[in-house]
Fold each of these.
Amino acid sequence: MSALPTGLPAGTWWMTHRRLSALARNPAVLVMTLAQPMIWLFLFGELFQGVAELPGFGARSYLDYIVPGVVIMNAVSLNSFAGMATMDEIERGTLNRFLVTPVRRGALVNAGVIEQALSTAFQSLVIILLGWAAGADYPGGPTGLAVLVAAAVLIGVVLAALSNTLALLVRDRNTIIGLNVMLLLPLTFLSSAFMPKDLMPSWIRHVATANPVSWALDTSRGALSATPDWPSAAMHGTWLLALTVATVALAIYSIRTYQKSQ
Amino acid sequence: MAHAIEAEGLVKNYPGDVRALDGLSITVGPGEILGLLGPNGAGKSTTVKILTTLIRPDAGTAAVAGHDVLRRPGRVRRVIGVVSQKSGADPDASGRDNLVLQGRLYGLPGARARRRAAELLARFGLEDAAGRPVKTYSGGMRRRLDVALGLVHRPRVLFLDEPTTGLDPEARASLWAEIARLAGDDDLAILLTTHYLDEADRLAGRLAIVDQGRVVVTGTPDGLKGELHGDAVHVEWRDAPPGPLVREALGRLPGIGEITLDGRRLSARTADGASAVPALLAALDQAGVPAAAATVARPSLDDVYLRYAGRRLADAEPVTAGGAR
């Protein structure tokens, strides 16, 4: 019995199957990691209620405003730790076990992207539902919400790809943890997650405009509002998509570099 | 197929002026087990990584089952099985799931992947544990699963990189038996790396002794030992005998050399220890210095290593074990 060449779709399917089986064996992880966004949602929702009354704020209530903020922030923080799982696989020898099989390198990266996309989408939906139960209003309807989930998935994939790249190239857990801790808050608060750009001091506004987390937020808020701003959603969505493609390509490239450096 | 593995002049440098391989060449014939013997850091794992397409050499050429590892890595991957030092099995998945997935990665359809997994679980005595997560396995069970994982697609060439490191003696013996059985399988060639002399002696049909990134000598274990100056003979007395008397008695015997007397112990070398000992004991009796005990030792691979690498294998081990390369 000689092995058949394993194509990219088949390889991607089986590597994804493996990851989703692992998730199915331990679904509690998905729920447990939701604790933090819950706290953000309800604590910030209560704490900053008054913000909605500021002139020029726009949204009807602060809760309405921060649901997309929390969804995107959750996608950022959840996925920025993807590299830790990759470290496990490197240290355990699992990555090398796959690299000596006919499985395509792209399939290994694709499987990661699909798993991160699915778990991010699942968690985003849970946050949206809980926000709705707490009284948040989504004037953009199902279309707007679908765009929000898609934007969360894209920014999540970007962060996961960067985190994996770091794991493959630096191969050090402390670096991953350190960078995450250092970057999570600035990435989130120097974006329009919790405060509309119009109300920001001008330097923060400039930073926020260039921040990919804001692109994800502008895409979703553009689609979620009662009068959707489709040009803004499309423009920011395109930037985000381009960044996603670039970072996934970087992750694939870093697998090759990893091979050269071991 | 002429050679299962053919590597010529492999060179690999690592950052920081570390020359892991310095012109290493080996060949492995179909159905042969070649043992790559050497201390940690000699370049054994680097050789395996190059031959299994994980890394590229800085110079040299290598072909596995006739496929060039640099130009046709995809072809090579389809015909090799690899059991590396780190297990790589999914600890949370069951042994069976690990095997079925591995079969899938080699393109086996579902029914065949499941049948092959069942076959291998039975063969490696893992049937009872088949459905349990791998993290509950003992070290020996895990290692047997690793070998099974390497065999799922019936490779032509199997790489075993330090397969028994860290196993208890019982688990080692059982894995040795499995590996010895593999050798009989339809033309499966095996490259085994080890720093255990007894393991190389027991399993390898042919040995390549590696030191500082190159092969210093190759041959069968017995052939290599036979090239040394015969067997070692050790004689002991209850009390230290007068040296001149002993030397005079032994000097008359043909074929005994390299005599060293140290207190009440003597060692010497002779071409055939078993036939030399009776004459030696008789000569000592006649000289009035009868021996209390005499033993004959076949030359060990450690002696071989000493001869070709210029030091004992145990001494060659780095004091602080760096990462395996």
Amino acid sequence: MKQLIKLEIGRAFHGRMFYISILIGSILSLLQIVFHVIPASMKIDLYLTEMDSPRLYPGWLFSSWLGGNVFDIESFLFYLLLPILAVLPFGDSYFTDRKSGYLKNVYIRTKKKNYLTAKAAAAFLSGGAAVVIPLLLNLALAALFLPALKPESTAPYGSIAEESMWSGLYYSSPWAYVFAYLLIDFIFAGIFALIALGISQAADYRFIVILFPLFLYLFIYSIAKLLHAHAFAPADFLNSGFGSGNSFSIILGEGAALAGLGLVTFWIGGRQETY
Amino acid sequence: MKIEIHNLSKVIRKATILDQISLVMESGKIYGLQGRNGSGKTMLMRCICGLVYPTEGEIWIDEKKLNQDISFPQSIGALIENPGFIGSYSGFQNLKLLASINPTIDDAQIASSMERLGLIPDDRKKYRKYSLGMKQKLGIAATFMENPDLILLDEPFNALDEKSIAVVKDILLEKKKQGALILLSCHDHEDLEQICDEIFVIQDGKQIRTYSPLKESERSKTNEEGT
């Protein structure tokens, strides 16, 4: 089992699609630095000379990086494309293994459960990594240009409401807050890769496997907006800058439900399928 | 190794693919499956590999019941229908990946299996760019590279030139000498009769005849001499 997990993780992290996914995410990440972070850094001196007024609180790291703001187009695009970035590295690999006949070669060498477990682990980890690496790149670059000031609740933007999830952490230990959200992003990206594995059992075309998690993501978003249940929309709660209305129990429950959906479909379909 | 198949049947959507097949096969012999397209040869091989569950009947491999005591034969190499590999990997990378699942052989042995069939291990050409013949050769190399006790080959001579067919036959005879149990299906009965010790003829999922081509050729020779 360990050997197979190692092999599948190797395939996932050395595959062309993993690098393509990182490249797409990194391009958005760099564009956000060029068009928003650097211009904001150029105005810091102006703000610092007029620090008396809270309205002139300078742009700071935690409200300006890609995963912490909700205004920049690059941030919007990144979180819109998140399910695709997560699926590209390895989410469609079960589908391609099955279609190519490679699975037959594997199933005469190991038990199905070993392969399915290894595949799920590799898809989850590579999906999570493909999303978090560009975010970390952006955070590191933004930290070169902007001060990591403690968030200020009276600032005109970048503040989150006191009743928001982990607001205490945000104002007291913003780095911990940011890394907690990076962990949530990693886990949800991994879950979207699992959902792609699950749909692989029923799909006849690769593009369906790749796009289905995005459709599900947008479907949940639309329903959540329609019912004014914003806390249920991953497109909102995955961005640490949103804060408002997020609930950890909803995030946890929704994550467990989506992961369960992906894993159960993948597992049952994989165990029952014959070749 | 001994394989015993008892009253094996496979029904898919009310269509009977295999109907009460019973066979016994032992190591050190080459067995052939002869039959027209759609007669059930491939399905029988899939059942023996554990890739498909039979509707009825049992397969025993070395006194272990398939799909109950074991989920697939423990030492097997198989090429069923088409070779199946990862398109973006080279031939060597593909074989290495498969060999790494249960690491028993090293890179040199993988390379030697490829060379035996005229493939170049250092060739960086991706599998998806291989010709049909090269794909088939890689599929055959994958079946015997780990020196399995059981080798199943479904139409192994497809897309191969005469020279390559001769090489594959040599390899099969060599593996037979080493004690492997080999089962191959082929639409060309002449190819089968050249190397098989016993041939099972299958028609519409039923086993209609079993014969030993070597004994039959000896018998016909004796008849000719008598006349």
